Amino acid sequence: MPPKLSESNEHMAKYIAMVIRNAMEDFHCEHLTDEQMKHLNPLIRNAIATALHAFDHYERSGAAHEFVDYHFRSIPSYWEQPEMLEGY
Asked: Which top-rank group of organisms is this from (predicted)?
């Protein structure tokens, strides 16, 4: 059974997922069907929730520690630095 999310992480995951979903809207309209988005949205929400939980429990959980370290190591060197979204 997966760990329980805190209420604040549940809310934050939904908030971040909505920001991502809105940022993807033009891409969605041009390349993805509504059915595909229906499957993509929970994947994004759940990945965000998992990342938030793991980051919050990094010092207290071996599994969280491994999860966070693995994903930090997986960030490719060619990725651009994050920037603020247009319109913020």
From this structure: Bacteria
Q: Residue 2 above 90 pLDDT? A: no
Report in angstroms the alpha-carbon separations of 50 from 57, 74, 77, 85: 11, 16, 23, 23
Tell me if residue 4 falls in helix, strand or coil: coil
Report yes or no on whether pTM surpasses 0.90.
yes
Residue keyed to tokens 């809310």: 11
Kindly report the number of other CB atoms within 10 A of residue 64's CB atom.
18
DSSP-derived letter for residue 87 is T
Using CA atoms, how far apart are residues 82 and 16, in angstroms rounded to an integer?
15
Contact 27, 35 (CB under 8 A): no
64 Cβ contact partners less than 8 Å away, ≥ 6 residues apart: 53, 54, 55, 56, 57, 58
CA torsion through residues 52, 58, 61, 64, sign: positive
